[in-house]
């Protein structure tokens, strides 16, 4: 197969450019990642995946571009995407890391709130929720069918596909509780005051600190939804410092009752981890189901 990576680098940086170093970068479970040093001294960031669907990196690129369009938070710039040997690749600008500036997390929270308040019409074609195309949450396909009801969207295109994939893990009692939870979801969730562009996978491993000490977002699973879903994900797998939520609250407020709904939003991610990584996540999933059913 033609090596489109080399062609892309030459298109971007000149016909004489070569790769002089390729250093692995840790942190992801799905892709192989590398920092490439080029013969002209530049660095670029490369993701490769030999097992991904054809649209996998195209979906990530579209998400990064959507997040970047607001100008509120830094994201890597998409340079190229294509195939090389037996893998797909995504080539991104290289974010040089630095030390957090003073009030980093407060500012990060404030900027996320600004992202959530930004206009979303360009991504939903007149509907309230969803996205212009499907994408991925980790290695799982994420359905983004345009929908006008947030509760319907979260039921049909977030919880139901994950529940169906995980169905074999549950006994008859759990299956009954899941059915009750899905049926009564409108009693638990609320329609948001305004739709928000969400990062979609905003756990603490999906931000970076730029060399200027400011926050940058990576590895998105974007869609337009209820901002509570993004906030909930920030509290899963370690969470963010209190200053982050103070900055968010000062800019946009925290919706009343959010703390009671937080775990329900994270059921989506816990189910996804159950489907991707196995039984270690089953107890956590069952705990949330028992609480809300």
Q: How many beta-strand runs? A: 11
CATH H-level name of the largest domain... which superfamily? Aminoglycoside phosphotransferase (APH), C-terminal lobe
Query: Any idea what the radius of gyration is?
Result: 20 Å
Which sequence of SSEs, written as H and E, runs from N to C?
Answer: HEEEHEEHHEEHHHEEEEHHHH
In order across it, which strands form the biggest sheet? 1-2-3-5-4
**Average predicted confidence as pLDDT:** 95
> Structural class, please?
alpha+beta
Coarse morphology: globular
Largest sheet: 5 strands, antiparallel
Q: Any guess at the CATH architecture of the largest domain?
A: Alpha-Beta Complex
Termini separation (Å)?
Answer: 51 Å
Query: CATH topology of the largest domain, what is it called?
Result: Aminoglycoside 3'-phosphotransferase, Chain: A, domain 2
Number of helices: 11
- CATH class label of the largest domain: Alpha Beta
Estimated share of beta-strand residues: 15-25%
Total tally of structural domains: 2
């Amino acid at each position: 197969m033609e090596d489109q990576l080399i062609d892309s680098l030459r298109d971007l940086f000149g016909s004489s450019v070569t790769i002089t170093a390729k250093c692995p970068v840790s942190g992801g479970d799905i892709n192989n990642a590398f920092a490439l040093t080029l013969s002209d001294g530049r660095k670029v960031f490369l993701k490769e995946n030999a097992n991904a669907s054809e649209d996998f990196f195209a979906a990530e690129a579209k998400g990064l571009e959507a997040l970047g369009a607001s100008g509120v938070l830094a994201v890597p710039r998409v340079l190229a995407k294509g195939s090389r040997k037996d893998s797909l690749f995504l080539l991104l600008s290289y974010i040089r890391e630095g030390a957090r500036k003073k009030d980093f997390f407060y500012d990060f929270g404030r900027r996320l709130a600004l992202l959530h308040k930004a206009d979303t019409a360009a991504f939903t074609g007149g509907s309230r929720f969803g996205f212009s195309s499907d994408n991925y949450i980790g290695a799982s396909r994420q359905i983004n069918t345009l929908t006008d009801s947030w509760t319907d969207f979260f039921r049909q295109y977030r919880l139901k596909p994950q529940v169906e994939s995980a169905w074999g893990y549950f006994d008859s009692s759990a299956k009954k509780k899941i059915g009750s939870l899905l049926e009564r979801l409108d009693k638990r969730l609320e329609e948001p005051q305004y739709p928000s562009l969400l990062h979609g996978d905003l756990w603490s491993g999906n931000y970076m600190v730029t060399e200027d000490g400011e926050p940058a977002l990576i590895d998105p699973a974007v869609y337009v939804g209820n901002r509570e879903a993004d906030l909930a994900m920030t509290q899963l797998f370690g969470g963010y410092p209190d200053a982050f939520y103070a900055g968010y609250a000062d800019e946009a407020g925290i919706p009343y009752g959010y703390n009671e709904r937080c775990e329900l939003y994270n059921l989506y991610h816990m189910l996804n981890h159950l489907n991707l990584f196995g039984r270690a996540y089953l107890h956590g999933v069952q705990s949330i189901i028992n609480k809300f059913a």
